[in-house]
Design brief:
Helix 2 runs antiparallel to helix 3. Among the domains are: 74 residues, Helix Hairpins; 113 residues, HSP40/DNAj peptide-binding domain (Sandwich), CATH 2.60.260. The chain starts with 5 loop residues before the first helix and ends with a helix. A hairpin with a 2-residue loop joins strand 4 and strand 5. The chain has nine helices and 15 strands. A four-stranded mixed sheet has the order 10-11-15-14. Strands 1-9-8 form a three-stranded mixed sheet. Strands 2-7 form a two-stranded antiparallel sheet. With 364 residues, the chain is α+β, with helices and mostly antiparallel strands.
Length: 364
């Protein structure tokens, strides 16, 4: 059985047509592309989906996959195509020593809520492996003499021949002397010591669009680690983390704010002002008879919608604050109110739901 079931990855059957495979791939690629998906495993899923499509969209690769699976043959674990070739034909196929793409890198960046609203550019420090400027990735000191590796004969790999139950078995490993290059130099590069890459830390500017949310990530192409032997660099993935705000909590594209009001303001109604995320204030009308936990919605004062027009709202929850201490005059007034309405109104079953919304919005 294959280690990875490419048909299951794309969600198609083994009798799926080429059009079915293509359609399934496009749908999943749009869903899990790292530039649009907020899922933590989006990059890994996108890579898995792409690998599955590369196999199943190629008739020759698909036929070989259906016959032998993903590196296994009839349940013989670890027995891949190279091993099969070696076992029955007593030789080895030459392994590629061409360009190798650099590794992708990931890091986290914290943003203020205001930066998520307006968008921002951040300079981040990225530690990575870069192509050595002195030897240009070749690993040899400028002017050094090169010669064919005597251990592997220029093949970059060494072979060991063993007899097995099936016949002669040839194992192949990277040449320990030349590191797979097939060449030896009389003087290694003094900066990278023959590795072809050096460790460096570079400043990279990352742009964050308005409306970006916690847990989403930005892909910066070509800012990962440098490739080997002239291969292209990898990409940089920046995961966004939003800092907590003193006045607002984010709820999707909406902003939640709690406004403290007196019992008199709640009972009689009032016109007040509330802060906005841009730093100003906006008028808000408190209806007469407002209850604790009731909300007032300010249209268009929330978060811009990511890669779309419009923005969310600012939802103002009312926190009716009862005074802890009363003056002599206030006490007399409250005593009079108490005598006029000795019992609260009945049928307020929705209060629990309203308060629950406030608790959910503020994490407790």
């Amino acid at each position: 059985m294959p280690k990875v079931d490419h048909y299951s990855v794309l969600g198609v059957g083994r009798d799926a047509s080429a059009d079915d495979v293509r359609s399934a791939y496009r749908k999943l690629a749009r869903q899990y592309h790292p530039d649009v998906s907020a899922a933590a495993d989006a990059a890994e899923r996108f890579k898995e989906i792409t690998q599955a499509y590369e196999v199943l969209s190629d008739p020759e690769k698909r036929q070989r996959y259906d016959m032998f699976g993903d590196g296994d043959l009839g349940g013989m674990a670890g027995f891949g195509i190279d091993d099969l070739f070696n076992t029955f034909f007593g030789g080895t196929r030459r392994r590629e020593r061409g360009p190798v793409r650099g590794a992708d890198l990931r890091l986290e960046v914290e943003l203020d809520l205001e930066e998520a609203v307006t968008g921002a550019e951040k300079a981040v420090r990225v530690p990575r492996q870069e192509t050595c400027e002195r030897c240009h990735g070749g690993g040899a000191e400028p002017g050094a003499k090169t010669s064919t590796c005597g251990t592997c004969g220029g093949r970059g790999e060494v072979r060991q021949v063993q007899q097995s139950l099936f016949g002669r078995f040839v194992s192949v490993a990277t040449c320990p002397r030349c590191g797979g290059s097939g060449k030896n130099v009389d003087q290694l590069c003094r900066d990278c010591r023959g590795e072809g890459r050096i460790h460096a830390e570079r400043e990279v500017t990352v742009g964050f669009p308005p409306g970006i949310d916690d847990g989403q990530q930005i892909r910066v192409g070509g800012q990962g680690e440098s490739g080997m032997r002239g291969g292209p660099p990898g990409d940089l993935y920046v995961l966004v983390r939003l800092r907590e705000h003193a006045l607002f909590r984010r709820d999707g594209d909406d902003l939640v704010h709690v406004l403290r009001v007196t019992p008199a303001q709640a009972a009689l109604g009032d016109e007040l002002k509330v802060p906005t995320i841009e730093g100003g204030e906006a008028p808000v009308k408190i209806p007469a008879g407002s209850q604790h936990g009731q909300s007032v919605r300010l249209r268009g004062k929330g978060i811009p919608r990511l890669h779309a027009s419009g923005r969310g709202d600012e939802i103002v929850y009312l926190d009716v604050v009862v005074p802890r201490t009363l003056s002599k005059e206030e006490r007399a007034l409250y005593q009079k109110l108490k005598s006029l309405r000795p019992q609260p109104e009945k049928d307020r079953a929705e209060d629990d739901t309203i308060l629950g919304k406030v608790r959910d919005a503020f994490g407790g």
